[in-house]
Amino acid sequence: MNFSSARQSFYQEINQPDEQINLAKAALDIAQEEYPDLDLEEYLNALDTMAAEVQERLPAERYPMRTIQTINRYLYDDLGFIGNTDDYYDPRNSFLNDVIDRRTGIPLTLALVYLEIARRIDFPMVGVGMPGHFLIRPEFEDVGIFVDAFNRGEILFEQDCKERLAQIYQQPVELQGNFIAPVSSRRFLTRMLTNLKMIYMNRQDLPKALSTVERILLLFPDAPVELRDRGLLYYQLGRWAEASQDLNIYLAMLPNAEDAPLIRQLLKHLGGDG
Predict the structure, then answer these.
(1) Structural domain spans, the chain
(2) 29-48: per-residue pLDDT in tens?
(3) Which residues contact 134 (CB under 8 A, 6 or more apart)?
């Protein structure tokens, strides 16, 4: 595969068992396509330094709540990390180097900083892809607490999560198990790339949108919607043979998809099978 060095590094990182993927390294590989001169070690070292400084502040008795409070004081009070509510859709909110430099980001990337610090101090935490908002929680059985990295490490309980879901859906919602299940590394990275994809699509930056879809497909090669979207981006970029191939695969996978008639019409225009 004729990949850039950043893409090759990303591919190598994700081409191993999920639990062995270094999330921070993979996230920086994503950023390096935007910033070719990015020094990955500089930012990995920055995370090491943060973790070491948290370690020094930890109390002798490391109960989960005390550990979380120590991380919160360090990240939000000492370093001034904050959720970016002023320009939520700034792509820099999705690049880990920018988040570390600017000390601002979106729920996912602030959660990543938090998770990386927790991992380095041997305090296991996992990401939780709750609908409407990304949270993290300690990976201990029956702890029952969640942390909102976007809102200064606010500590939430299951009832708080239910109330947030009720606000989103405008009706009472049960806290289903899949809402608070751990997010795999591949899913985490896919969510990061999907955020960027939506930003670039809205900005009509088609080459960068295509770049994000290509990397999602490295993570999940058989994702039908991503194959469709890559085909549509190829079409808009005038790469019609590649567009036809992806769109035909999409129809073969989902022949009864809601948008299948439109895709068949587009393929006829391209002279494809449809």
Answers:
(1) 39-179, 222-270
(2) 999 999 999 999 999 999 99
(3) 107, 108, 111, 127, 128, 149, 150, 191
Q: Coil, strand or helix: which one is 264? A: helix
Q: Give the pLDDT score at 177.
A: 74
Alpha-carbon torsion angle 176, 182, 183, 184, nearest 10: -140
- Which pTM was predicted? 0.94
Contacts of 195 (CB under 8 A, 6+ apart): 94, 106, 108
CB 110 within 8 A of CB 83: yes
Query: pLDDT (tens digit, 9 = 90+) per residue, 234-245?
Result: 999 999 999 999
In this structure, are residues 247 and 272 in contact, taking their beta carbons and an 8 Å threshold? Answer: yes
Structure tokens at 54: 């948290």
